[in-house]
Every structure is written in structure tokens, then in C-alpha cells.
Amino acid sequence: NAGVTQTPKFQVLKTGQSMTLQCAQDMNHNSMYWYRQDPGMGLRLIYYSASEGTTDKGEVPNGYNVSRLNKREFSLRLESAAPSQTSVYFCASSEMAGASYEQYFGPGTRLTVT
Amino acid sequence: AQSVTQLGSHVSVSEGALVLLRCNYSSSVPPYLFWYVQYPNQGLQLLLKYTSAATLVKGINGFEAEFKKSETSFHLTKPSAHMSDAAEYFCAVSGRRGNEKLTFGTGTRLTIIP
């Protein structure tokens, strides 16, 4: 099992460009999450999907959109990138949405917006 | 809403010495508490979690944490540090209701001195 995979690993964008970060899991998990990690701020939840067909905003959703394409895949889209979106993005999945269920993290995507 | 505070953004210990990473939580009711570890250029991995069974929780790689309600603390310890413990450690908290999400602390970077 690959677990949670993310593509790309690195990306540089110019301000105003758009891109989609891809995430897939092969653990048959129902719930998936997108976080961003910034120095000194820990991880902050951007969006999550409790189950296939549902998505909800997290703590910092502005400037992002998500799509739960199917049970395996959950993508994060930046429509018009801004320097403030320079960050490391992590996708995670869990069997169910409750916090008692362990979240499994992907290796991250390092995004720089110039 | 729940929150956690990690005291000390950087901690250095000698190889073989005690590791103590501090985490205090804020919650009106006993929450779920977690410790995650992030090795360089990797995603987060669950070390251990407290979900109200035993107050002393044992995790992977020899780590353990004790839930102390009177002190609102969930400090992470390991009796003898190993070079491979060098990483960033995140404390996280969640409420106990069905769909609650994790809130992460700002992280503590652990350095092991040979």
C-alpha cells in the first residue's frame, strides 16, 4: 500500500496563476483533509471531506477550492495564487471523520508563489 | 473551542538524556489529545493519543505521555533520547463530539546532541 500520495512534490507559481494539488489514498478511508503548514503556526485545516460527495470549510479556506473526485481522490485548487499561499500543503485521510480516528498524512507539496 | 500550547519551539537534549516536550491544552471538557512526529521532509505520523482510557499513554518508539487534568497538560516524554528522535513534534487536540477536527500546536523541534 502506498498510503497517501500527493503530487507534485514541489511547485513554483507566479502571482495570479492557478494550479491543482492532487491527493490520493489507497486505504479505503472515508474522510480526507487538506492542511497547510507555515513556520511557527503548526498545521491549519483548509478543507475536509467527511465522506465521498461532501466537503466542508476548515479554519483557513479563503483562496482555495476542493473537489472530492471519488472515495480515493481529494484535490485542492488555487484559482489565483498569492504570495500568502506560499506554504507546505499536506493531505491526510482517516477511516472516519471523528477525531479519535488516526489521520494518515502524505509527504507534502512545497508551494512557492512569487 | 479547544487549543493547545507547546512550550518551547526548540528543545535540545544529549543522546541518552530524558526527552520532555511540553503541551498544555485549553478545553472546558476533557478532550482527545494527540502527539504527532514529523521527520525532515516527511508528513506527520501519529505517536500516541489519549481518548480517555488510561491517563498514561504509551506510543511508538518508546515515547509516552500522561494526561493530567489538574494541570491541563499532556507532556511527551522518553527516558533516553536517540539520534533518530530528531524531528518536529506536534501536540494536537480535539473535542469528543462526532465530527470534530484536530487543532494543532505550533510544534517543537527536537535536536539530539551526540
List keywords for this structure.
A: 114 residues; mainly beta; 7-stranded mixed beta sheet; 4-stranded antiparallel beta sheet; 11 strands; 51% strand; B: 114 residues; 5-stranded antiparallel beta sheet
| Uncertain stretches of 5 or more adjacent residues of chain B | none
Instruction: Profile the largest sheet of chain B.
Output: 6 strands, mixed
| Number of beta strands of chain B | 11
Largest sheet of chain A: 7 strands, mixed
Mean pLDDT of chain A: 94
Number of helices of chain B: 0
Task: Show unreliable segments of chain A.
Answer: none
Work out the strand percent of chain B: over 45%
Describe the structure.
The complex is a heterodimer of chains A (114) and B (114). Chain A has no helices and eleven strands. Chain A has 114 residues and is mainly beta. In chain A, the strands form two sheets. In chain A, strands 2, 4, 5, 6, 9, 10 and 11 form a seven-stranded mixed sheet that branches. A four-stranded antiparallel sheet of chain A has the order 1-3-8-7, with no helix packed on it. Chain B is 0% helix and 54% strand. Chain B has no helices and eleven strands. The relative contact order of chain B is 0.34. Chain B is globular. Chain B has 114 residues and is mainly β. The model of chain B has no long low-confidence stretch (mean pLDDT 92). In chain B, strands 2, 4, 5, 9, 10 and 11 form a six-stranded mixed sheet that branches. In chain B, strands 1-3-8-7-6 form a five-stranded antiparallel sheet, with no helix packed on it. The A-B interface holds A 4, 33, 40-45, 48, 50, 58, 90, 92, 97-100, 102-103, 105-108 and B 9, 32, 41-46, 49, 51, 90, 94-96, 98-102, 104-107.
